[in-house]
Design goal:
Pfam families: COG6_C, COG6_N. It is a peripheral membrane protein. This protein has 678 residues and is mainly alpha-helical. It has 25 helices and no strands.
Amino acid sequence: MGTATALAPGLSRKLKKVLETRTDTPDLLASLNTLSSFYSENTPHSRRNLRSTIEKRGLSINEEFLAASASAQQALDQVEEEVNALADCCDKIAKALNNCNATTGDIISTTERLKQELENTTQRQEIASFFLRDYQLSNDEINALREEDLSEDFFKALAHVHEIHANCKLLLRTHHQSSQRAGLELMDMMAVYQEGAYERLCRWVQAECRRLGDFDNPEVSELLRTAIGCLKARPVLFKYCAEELANMRHNALFRRFISALTRGGPGGLPRPIEVHAHDPLRYVGDMLGWLHQALASERELVFALLDPDSVADTGPIAQRFSKISEKDVGKTESDLTFALDRIFEGVCRPFKLSITLEFYCHTMSDLLGRETALCNTLWALKDAAQKTFFDILKTRGEKLLRYPPLVAADLSPPPALREGVSVLLEIIETNDSMMVSLSGKKPAFEPVISALLDPIIQMCEQAAEAHKSKGVIQSSRRSRVSSDPAQQRRSSIDAILDNNRSSPSFQIRETPSRIFLINCLSAIRQPLLGHDVASEYVKKLGTMIENQIHGLVEKEVDTILRRCGLSNKMPHFYESLKTDKSISNPPLAETDDMSTAALSECLKAFFGLILGSENSLPEFEQMQAPSLRSEACLQLAKSLAEAYEIIYKGIMDPNNGYPDPRSLARHPPDQIRTILGI
């Protein structure tokens, strides 16, 4: 038997692989089932083309798959495009965010910084609001202090001013110059508000006190009590209001007292006190009883106004201040005593009593003898009444000198002067109507006039001195104007030479003060004319007025010459007229200040004042007496003419060396006198 033919290695492996393949595997069975669906004939040709058939079958399946998935592919392409577009947008957004992060970093830091600044500003605003609350007045408070009717808002605003003033003192204690400067400025501002408010409050209280004089038992409002309590912080204003209250109640009480003496009560009940004049004991007792009752009601009114916080009782005044310091007790007690004393001053007339007692002293002495008991009693009563009278005048004068009034804008005399003159005229009328015994004579009246008017004149001089000193620092106060007639005869040129050494600002302030004094002296002198008992004092007042007018004219002439530039040249002209002509001196024209050009400008200004159409020369409109005003204008014109005559003679003097003097001094002195109306 022949040996089996050996197989090729490759074929052997394939055969082995085929033989080892399992035909019952699911994958193989599935493949065969699929193959049977399109492999219908088992022919050699078919077997040879099996591979290509399978590949074609796979290709057709893939083509079908591709055809079936074409729409999905298109959709995926669109999705891809949209995704790509979305990616581009995201890239742009990311880029924008990166740019924003780069730019907003500064914004965030700036925002943080501004937020911190806002907090600081808020704190500063709160501090500023607290500062304005503690150191400034609101518009409503300013209106309450200045414009609105007096109400509780006024006192609240005034209390706020006090608080601000106290707070400013704390600023002054700091070591910062800005705080100290702010404190001073605020204190000045508050001082203006405070003084204005107190002056307005004083005027309102005075008006209310005047209304109290219209009623016998007036009702005191709570607002008035509060106002007077506030005025205690200003003793001078409080004193004015206390005086106004005392004067009004004085007049009211005097009317009531006269009515009780002569007419009695309403309907005749109670009966007039004078019906019991035949019974001295009852007559005096009824008057004292009425005064005691009136004193109780007036005392209650005065305490309700001037000391509303005190406890009402009927004990001595000093006992009402047990809860107040001794200093305040003394001050308040003095104010209350003054008011009550002024109110009841009208029910006593020491001067009338004095002259009546003096008449009966002489009459009784003629009948009984000087050394009898009755006459001694009458003389003692007369001396006591006279002493009381002069003590009242002295006290009145001291009060006037203690609180001199302010000078009014129109330079009119103060009300205290008119009141004093009115009292003097009443006393003069009483003196003229007094009875004189056969053996006696009227007492000297000059001391009475001096005791009453001298303090008034001194008060006016103090007021004028204070008005003159505003804005001008003086080393000493001007003494009272001398009544020496020799002063009046002093030359106007001498006065001009003396005035060259005085301050111009001092002269400007002195003119209104002199006019004020002239108005005051004239207001005193005019009512006294025609009264024989005051003739000597009237002459004294006339001399004082003449001296004041003379001094006023001197100052005005010097002021006019200063304006023209001639004041400093007057001494040279005056000396040239006094110099001996035989002594050779350099001509005035060669002096710097006295050259022709300088003198021409000065004279041009002088002629402009004299010949000007406007009222260049003072006419003393504020001088209230027309005759004195005319006299002052006449003296001014004479003094100017006299000064120009000196200048004219100096220019015309050949020794002074002025070329063509007539062109320099165009008007002779006679023309100037005619122009000035002399």
